Amino acid sequence: MTLVFKKCSYAVTSRGLLRDVDIAVERGRVSGIGTGLGGGEEIDCQGLVALPGLANAHTHLSHMYAPPKTPAPTWERHHEDVPQREVAELALRLALIRALESGTTLVADTTAHPDLLQRIAGEVGVKVTPAVSWGMLSGWEGGVVLGGLEEAVEHSVEIRERAAGSQQALIFLHVANDRSQLYAAKTKYGRFPIELLNSLGLLTPRTILVNPGWASSWELRLVGEKRARVVYAPVADALTSSGGMLPVRELVSSNVATGLCSETPLIGQTLDMFDVTRAFLILQRELFWERDLTALGAMSIATRGGYSALSVEGGVIEEGSVADMVLVASELARFKGVDPERLLLSLSAANIVYVLVDGRVVLEPSRKEQLEAVKRYTLERLLDRLDPTRL
Ligand SMILES: [Zn+2]
């Protein structure tokens, strides 16, 4: 069946920001963008802005409701906790619903329970790319996550073999997250972190560097030469006072696939990629004097950039593209000829009306109530498990 999103006030497409367009969706893909489209079920989208679905390109959702850490988690240790299966199941359900409600259509998650993640994501309606910690690898052919440089050095032979193997699974490496990691790498190995990875043959087209805020420009050039990818967590980076800041435009202009992410909820507690994208734009503008980075450019990194970093088709609205899409209400969208910057910066997850994944409507006003009930029920069960004062 064809779905036609009629008269979207604005649409962020591969041709730029279009005004007053219909978007037709058929068999999971965008089948037309234009005016006067019809021939299927029509949904009035006046006052709505259509965007590609957002990608959260690296997170640890099972930690969403973990008890506070003392001392506070560091980049070196942020991935270590492994919640029990029952707690993980409840946390994953809540976190994935929250991700969906904030317009995220693709999540790359680190989990000890990839089977649970895939099942629950299927029920909620979000796409996931699971990755497991290196220590839990046995028998798993999918993505893996390494916590730091030492782990990467220790397992460099196996990582290289995995990267050269036939599986397409990605290898996430937390690297150059803060100043102390640079010092440690220089002291222990005599090289800068990404320089070291390169010398070990670990910069590959399957490698995703997670949050390398302390990468130097010449190391980033190596990343580009080796066609590795990068995902960046501006909120978590700033909240840990890492002092690092990734020059993302430098990466994007050297064609490095670069996406944004929330990182672990232990640092940051947000899964809202609108928040992450806004923080990214503000920080890049302020710290790099990046006046040329527009809201549209930041949105493209959060959508197309994330999909591309994860090798998943989507993240763009154009004829023939996978129909992962978000429609958000905005008062400004009612005005003709509004400044695109003002319009895009006015968008908020709280005003999302529809979310589509593979052309299927997975969030709409009539489903919101049902999801609220699931969240309430799941939260109660989670509290019973985690909050001893309720026993
Ligand atoms: Zn992480």
Q: Supply Rg.
A: 21 Å
- The chain-level structural class is alpha/beta
The shape is globular
CATH topology of the largest domain: TIM Barrel
Per CATH, the class of the largest domain reads Alpha Beta
Question: In what range is the share of β-strand residues?
Answer: 15-25%
Mean pLDDT: 91
Count of the separate structural domains: 2
Question: What string, H for helix and E for strand, traces the elements in order?
Answer: EEEEEEHEHEEHHEHHEHEHHEHHEHEEH
Number of helices: 13
Cα end-to-end separation: 50 Å
Q: How many DSSP-defined strands? A: 16
The CATH architecture term of the largest domain is Alpha-Beta Barrel
CATH homology superfamily of the largest domain: Metal-dependent hydrolases
User: Mind summarizing the main beta sheet?
Assistant: 8 strands, mixed
Helix content: 25-40%
Q: How would you summarize this macromolecular structure in one to three sentences?
A:
The chain has helices at about 85-100, 115-125, 150-155, 155-165, 180-190, 195-200, 215-225, 235-240, 250-255, 275-290, 295-310, 340-345, 365-385, and strands at about 5-15, 15-25, 30-35, 40-45, 50, 55-60, 105-110, 125-135, 145, 170-175, 205-210, 230, 260, 325-330, 350-355, 360-365.
